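PROTEIN SPECIFICATION:
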Amino acid sequence: MSQSDGTQSETLLVREDEGVLTITLNRPGRLNAFNAEMGEAFIAALKLAQSGSSVRAVLITGAGRGFCAGQDLGDRDPRKMTGKPDLGATIEACYNPVVRLIRALEMPVVCAVNGVAAGAGANIALACDIVLAAKSAKFIQAFAKIGLVPDSGGTWSLARLLGEARAKGLAMTAEPVDAVTAAQWGMIWKAIDDEALMAEANALAKQFAAGPTRGLALTKLAIHAAATNSLDEQLDLERDFQREAGRSDDYSEGVAAFMDKRPPVFKGK
């Protein structure tokens, strides 16, 4: 993918290789804190993944020593404004579309958290399907420090991943959670040695991109639905999704490869 396409910005790097669209938050001097330009570029990159026929997995990470410090507060300083800020407008323009796109993408989304993930940065990471974090990384619900409410799906993700007690504790104290603890609590998939993080994240994203993409997408959507479905509704959904997956070329290839004792060659169809 050319870096001159519409998603490219100095604040966000976008690259496609072997079916993996890698999105790198690129404001390292500000710990990759969001400004309006980066938010717009991020939305455009996710839409590109959504519409690109060659993209079969997404990898999100950050440049430099941190993943993302959330919103750049320098852009939302009430002292520089003539009236009260409308932070809801910021959420509606940037963070809600990002989270909705990540959750809706019909392909695996891997997040490699390479350092601090604070505020919206933490919650965007938690919106991804598979989260790997460097052992030096920390997740911080920093909102409480400035009188705000966790956004970017934070109240939703924390409650479902951790339960009410830990969700409230993290949200109301802004206490950092290290990557190893986050993995032990089921908040993320794995904590990885710092020097091995990107190699493992890239390998996993490429594994997904070479895999049975439609079946993986249906698995993702089914697990999302389980949060609100009754058991009967979920059983019906599994039936319908399995019917669709069973009619895919990838299922035929998977069975043929198993019977022939050879590696499968999936096309994502």
In short: The CA atoms of residues 24 and 96 lie 19 Å apart. Confidence is low (pLDDT under 50) at residues 1-6.
